[in-house]
Amino acid sequence: MTPEYRKRAFLALLTAAVGGGLIAYGWGRRSSEDTSAPASSLSPRSLTSYVAQQAEDEGAGLYGMEPLKAQDGALSWDLFAAVQNTTQEEPSSAGAFPNAFRMILKPMFTESIKHYDGKKVKIMGYMFPLEDGASQRHFLMGPYPPTCVLHYHAPNNQVIEVTSDTPIPLMWEPILVEGTLMLLPDDPKNSFYRLEKTRFIKEYPFKAN
Length: 209
Fold this sequence. Notes:
This protein has one domain. It is globular. 22% of the residues lie in helices and 31% in strands. The strands form 2 sheets. A 5-stranded mixed barrel has the order 3-4-5-7-6. The N and C termini lie close together (11 Å). By secondary structure, the protein is α+β, with helices and mostly antiparallel strands.
């Protein structure tokens, strides 16, 4: 991770902490006077995806960071970023708000990415742990370094759920893995992709200039 990436990651974490507190105040509620801001009613992961997508739409990337460039035969993150989605609201019983709802995302897979469905592929990206401990059998991967300990700040179309029979050491620098890519059209967690039977290949250690 370059010094510039570390700086941007810190700023992103600070922004998320401040913004998250403000959003949490109205999370799960929709104002009867203003229904033009649905972000306050999204789940935590969908909310960060919503915010990240706004930055993407403005041409700034994620917090000004460029996505990781794939190497060594890994699929390009542009392939995943090209996947769009529709949204659907449904009532949610979670939380203390009687009128709460959750946003369901339905991916619209491109023909290009459908070609890899069920096939063994290589992915290069950053790990986001989902388990306790120094090794992970279940984690997320994406083209941006983690900027928050609670959830991975990246659009859903650029997040891959990863499962492995063999624990993979948790690393903060980019890694290269290989596994079977599965497209998920109706995942209840709003995941678009899963990499199964994953094996670790290599890490890309930070090199100072």
